[in-house]
Amino acid sequence: MKLFLLGVGVTGTLPSRHTYRYLKEYQSEVPASFQLPGLLRNEQKIQLITSAASAALAGLNAQQSLQSQCGCIVSTRWDGRFPTLTDERDGRLLSTADLPPSRVALTLVAHVAESCIPMLFNLQGPSCTISSKQGLQAALEIAALFLTTGRAPLMLAQEFDLALPVNLCQAGFEPQASYALSVIVALQPWDRKVLGEIIV
Amino acid sequence: MQKSGQPVVITGMGVVSPFGVGVEKLWQAVSTNQCAISSIQRFSVAPGMAHLGATIPEACLEEVQHAYAGDLCRWIMEQTLAETCQSAHLALDQLPTLGRGIVFFSNHFDADVHQRTLKEHALVTAQGAQQWCLDFWAEWLQVRSGAERGLGVITTCTGSNTAISLSMDWVGAGLADWALVGGMDILHAEVLAELDSVRLLSPSGCRPFARDRDGTVLGDGAGLLLLERADQARKRGAKIWASLPGYGLAADTSGLTRIAADGHFLCQAMTQALQHANLPPEKIGYVNAAATGSPALDEIELLALQKIFPDQPPPISSLKAQIGHSIGASGTLETIVTVLALEHQLLPPTLGVQLAPEYGIDIVPYARPHTFVFALNNAVSMSGHMCTTVLQRGFS
To answer: pLDDT tens, B291-324?
Structure first.
């Protein structure tokens, strides 16, 4: 199935393995705060996620009614729960019992991206968070189902991962840096500038 | 909203619940108004913290120690997978003969891995890190079942219902011939600390819809469903437990961890589900509520139900009073109980409920006979994710 690509937003650095490397041309300058080692503070995690979504949605703001029906699907495997709850000095895991409640609440909610993107951008279509090795590709497959069944006229699909602890990155494991990649896709151009086409 | 293609049916079910291993044990206990909630014995609870839980019976844990070296999650997964195949009259290695398979699995927190990593390894290792992947159990199921794909669904309390909904579309559209769908979550000291710190847990018990409700109680649980297209299931002579004619998904945009007080978004999910199933509200004979015993959420769900069913809402109940809240698995357990309720034409109870006549809603206090064909199953997560599924008795 062919999907029209209507918006792209990237924050952080896409891992080298990434299937959609051609989208790197849309990559923004990486703010230093996104390269934090160890515990990624909740505010920065949300900033990383929402910045990518905001950049992707930028071209649609003039058509609020369309945007409000937009759905949201997020794909992540490393969302910053326990692997990043480490003491950077020795890589030791921290217990949630050692953390203040406010940090526990948001750090451990795996679907925080799916929750904050619809809230901040008023996306009232269906939303969902999945986890898959196929990353954005899997999110796009589900987005295509929502589009074809008429659940939403427009879908925001996002892949994000937060950097693994330093000791794992040193051993070559990815992701070594936090990143978020958002795309807006639809079955028709909606009078928007079409950035490309994606085959799902 | 268009139909996603071919009708999809449930042909296999497996469960591990606080009442033990097996669908029959769960139904027998639920339908006789039993409660599995008691003081947590499996681990020590810090003074001042919520101390109640619905845990797997001690007798099961002995088998876990002997045969699975204490790996509770793997034992649970093996049990549910085996029962699901058995109830579908298939051997595990026969699943791939049904065609292309997919797994959608919901798991909030693999307590075993966390426990072992904290106690034994202390440092994050590569192997440990792999097990922290959010789709770890989805991939495990994919490998064990021979499915082509394995996807984790990580919307916590709505994870199971969302997994069922996505599978419905996926199988209905012909992208797969069968799907293994479900969820697992295990009560653990870390989860208890997490939810107690945000004051979601009750110190006195889980009493959904009761006037004196003061929070939820966590529980162990895992469930799996085998979904197939109806034509395929009929062709191979499989028992059709129930069909899945529709679902609705909605995102509450009113706050990050808050739900709209007027129930607008839950109404949206229920309306979508009814539209997808092409059913008027009056056809619904029972609602398995998301109610957790939370003072705010239960009230919101009652308001939403009043809006969807303005004349006379159907009977409703919440299973969480009996088996606690198993987060990522709760939707699957509730689906299984609703399927059995449809099969036996018996409404499950909401233990401990004091009827609230001001709402004019029939909240079932004890299990009782009832004639119905369609049911709704609601799920709500604290981040504002809503998912409602429609279940139909058998298939017509």
So the answer is: 999 999 999 999 999 999 998 899 999 999 999 9
| CA angle, residues A153, B251, B379, in degrees to nearest 5 | 125
Task: Copy the structure tokens of residue B234.
Answer: 């009929």
Q: Do B385 and A109 touch (CB under 8 A)?
A: no
pLDDT in tens, B76-127: 999 999 999 999 999 999 999 999 999 999 987 665 665 555 555 555 666 6
- For B224, the enclosing helix (H) or strand (E) is strand B221-229
Q: Which of B138, B152, B385 sits opposite A114 (nearest CB)?
A: B385
CB B128 within 8 A of CB B121: yes
Peptide bond into B357 cis (omega under 30): no
The pair of three-digit structure tokens given for residue B109, joined into one six-digit string: 């927190």
Q: Is the pTM of this model over 0.90?
A: yes
CB contact under 8 A, A104 and B198: yes
Q: How far is CA B241 from CA B83, B233, B256, B335, B392, in A?
A: 14, 11, 37, 11, 9
- Could you give the CA distance from residue A104 to residue B382 in angstroms, rounded to a whole number? 14
Residue A157: φ, ψ to 5°: -115, 135
